[in-house]
Every structure is written in structure tokens, then in C-alpha cells.
């Protein structure tokens, strides 16, 4: 089993690339449900850190920066993974 990595800028870049490439629908849900960008039509994850994530959401054709703070400070990349999954489940329940 792989060990979890501390969330460095390199790890942030890796997580963001994965989320944007493979989970664009989830990133859009984060923007809508947790970032108050309810009118967003698309979103990309720009950065993730232990306190939260920075997204760029497309709202009415304009790029809008969205900061989402996590409900706890992330300890490592595995914590980030589990937290992002939990947030998708929560967004689906609300939506």
C-alpha cells in the first residue's frame, strides 16, 4: 500500500490534474455546493492545501475564483482523497 504524501505544491498539482482530468463533474459540484457558485457551468481545481481548495468556476461566461475551506485541516494526500470523496457524497445528497 502506498504511503500518503504531505500536501506540497507538487502533490497539489498532481491532485488537481487528476480531479480536472477524471472528475470534472465532482469539481463543478464542489463549486456549486460548497463555493456558493450555484450558477457555475464548469469549474477547475487550481490548488489544494491542508486548509482548503482554490477553484476557477465559469459563471455567466466569466472566470470566477472560488475558495472552499475544508471542515478540518488535512493531514496528507490520503486525507485529501477521503475528504474529497466525502464532499462529493454530501453534494449528491443535497443536490
From TrEMBL:
Residues 12-87 form the DUF2470 domain. InterPro entries: DUF2470, Haem_oxidase_HugZ-like_sf. Gene3D superfamilies: PNP-oxidase-like. It comes from the Bacteria. This is DUF2470 domain-containing protein.
Amino acid at each position: 500500500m502506498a504511503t500518503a504524501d504531505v500536501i506540497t505544491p507538487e502533490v497539489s498539482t498532481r491532485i488537481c490534474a487528476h480531479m480536472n482530468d477524471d472528475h470534472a463533474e465532482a469539481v463543478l459540484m464542489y463549486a456549486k455546493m460548497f463555493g456558493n457558485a450555484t450558477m457555475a457551468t464548469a469549474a477547475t481545481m487550481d490548488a489544494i492545501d491542508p486548509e482548503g481548495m482554490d477553484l476557477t468556476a465559469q459563471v455567466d461566461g466569466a472566470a470566477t475564483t472560488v475558495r472552499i475551506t475544508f471542515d478540518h485541516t488535512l493531514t496528507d494526500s490520503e486525507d485529501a482523497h477521503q475528504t474529497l470523496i466525502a464532499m462529493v457524497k454530501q453534494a449528491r445528497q443535497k443536490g
